[in-house]
# Entry
Amino acid sequence: MSLLEVDDLTVTYRTAGGDVPAVRGVSFALEAGQKLGLAGESGCGKSTMALALLRLLPRTARYTGEIRFDGEDILTMSWGRLRAVRWAGASIVFQGAMHSLNAVQRIGAQIAEPIRLHSKATEAEIRRRTGELLEHVGLPARRADAYPHELSGGQRQRVMIAMALACDPKLIVADEPTTALDVMIQAQILTLIESLVAEQGISLLMISHDLSVLADTCDRLAVMYAGRIVEEGPAAAVFGDARHPYGRALAAAFPRIGDPASRRRPQGLAGDPPDPADLPSGCTFHPRCPARLDHCDKLDPRLWPAGDDARAACVHVLPDKGLSLVAKESA
Amino acid sequence: MADSALPTAPVPQLAQSVRDRSGVRRRLRYYGEKLGGSLVSLFAVILTSFFLFRIIPGDPVRTMTHGRPVTIEQQEQLRREFGLDKPLAEQFWSYLTGVLRLDFGDSFQFNRPVTDLIGERLWPTVLLVGTSVVISAALGLWLGVRGAWNHGSLSDRVNTGVALTLWSVPSFWLGLILIVIFASGAGWFPTSGMESTGVEGWERIPDVAHHMVLPLVTLVAVVYAQYLMIMRSSLLDEMGSDYIVTARAKGLRDIIVRRRHAVPNALLPTVTLIFVNLGFVVFGAVLVETIFSWPGLGQLFYSGLSVPDLPLVQGLFILFSAAVILMNLLADLLYPVLDPRVRP
Ligand SMILES: Nc1ncnc2c1ncn2[C@@H]1O[C@H](COP(=O)(O)OP(=O)(O)OP(=O)(O)O)[C@@H](O)[C@H]1O
Ligand SMILES: [Mg+2]
# Structure
């Protein structure tokens, strides 16, 4: 049994302007101790997916499908059970460390909070553990008395990582943990996360818009487009030999770190990512696809096997390029 | 371990102590500046009050003796008594030294020292208006928190609507309506005053409380919406923040997330409002005190204005301004304690 099994997950935001299907049928599995990277352009639903894993989305979000964590379905479990799984089972390192910490509480108190909640440790033990965690992420223990604004961006992200480790979780979800940091610090933070999860055998789901960063860190990669996974497989295969045209564009993009323009659009790929409230017909990527075929606006591709242990949602991986499927549907 | 490869750069002890010392100096400077600024404002108020009230139209002596048979000589005598015949510079000097000794001269109207009059009237006002600030802040903040947490719900819409309606009602009008219905009409409460004659000892407490109900309800009703609206919008802002998601992700109950994380952050903007309103406490509620004949500073101010009773109005003006300046100073000093980001 895998540690995390996501099966046909959909997330739809109810808004005044209509439903926004942000995640549209995502399935994947993450084994214990494995590191999975999830890449995709801004707005493709990465954060929505990450927050859905612990049912943390606002009340306007509706879920369907299944998220089995350690054998239990997150989407149907009781609130009490869910609160126990949060942080003790799986913790999250959020996108912007600036705002993910409470500005008026000392960081020591914020790290200690989940320990106090999920364990029966005494106050002295909690204080010692907080100091240990800070030293573990490369900060002196006495920084526990600091407030978030007294730390640099990189130090704040280290605090977030210390906090994520606080209850010895089985899974850490890192949602763009290095966005908004400068290049040197990004590399340090990535190395830190990598070494800590490896050391403690924690599974990692790392989200980024930068496939090359993920390829360095993770065992497997998944590429997301318009709320679906369009390519998935071993890191080397996806990064070196992507079968989906979008995966190839991402792998070739090498977005410059810290450059917001490259974050929004991989180089060499025309057009903008589609608006989830108004998706193109057929394959949602077809308006931007350099390898588009005539029937791509009619055929909605599924993840088909594409090479060794890999899958891609593109008609090009089918022997007859999906023609038989089109014929079957129109019959 | 990979950690050893990472530069952790602990700050050397020496640098730390130097930083501490310069921090102390910076903090002292901050407090010194705030205190100095307050003193300058206070002096400006004293100066303004002297000249401002010299240009108010109306001859106080003529007003005092209005309708009574007094000779010109008697009027001159009164002018001399109040020092109104001296040159302006001399008047100012004696006024300034007086103010610094908390001596505002004698009231034209009551023929008694202004300081004594203020002393008598201060406590009724502090009791009434102070209680109203405490109750309206507590009520408004509580409703604001509830409203934000269930925003858009029926109870939120009703609460906000009622508060805004009451806010727009003039206080004297609401006071009169309450008197007509509950005092002269139903007879449940006294129509005016602070206590009944002949009530002694511990009996006075329920008696005063009974007299206080209607003016208190009036004051609270027209003010609590301010707190509700500020708290509600401030908490709505905080609830959308990332650190709230972090707190929920930790597995905290919603009520703890709200109490421990969202509300303390959302309270910060309301602190200033509370202190500003506390500053206006001694100003009383001129209209409400007058309508309910509450023997406080507001009513005193009203009677001083209608004469005009120069020393009395001047003394009250300085007192009111000093209270606002003092409360602003306290807010400035307290705010950094609550919000580490603005700590000097
Ligand atoms: N609360 C919400 N209500 C309505 N729509 C939302 C909400 N949150 C996100 N969306 C929409 O859902 C889609 C996916 O958003 P999401 O934040 O998951 O993207 P992302 O892949 O994490 O992007 P980024 O790289 O910018 O972080 C976007 O189109 C976004 O506009
Ligand atoms: Mg995101």
About this structure: Chain B has one domain: 30-196+206-342. Chain B touches chain A at residues 1-3, 5-8, 10-11, 241-243, 245-253, 261, 264-265, 268, 338-341 (CB under 8 Å). Residues A 46-47, 95, 175 surround magnesium ion (ligand 2) (CB under 6 Å). The domain at 30-196+206-342 of chain B is CATH 1.10.3720.10 (MetI-like fold).
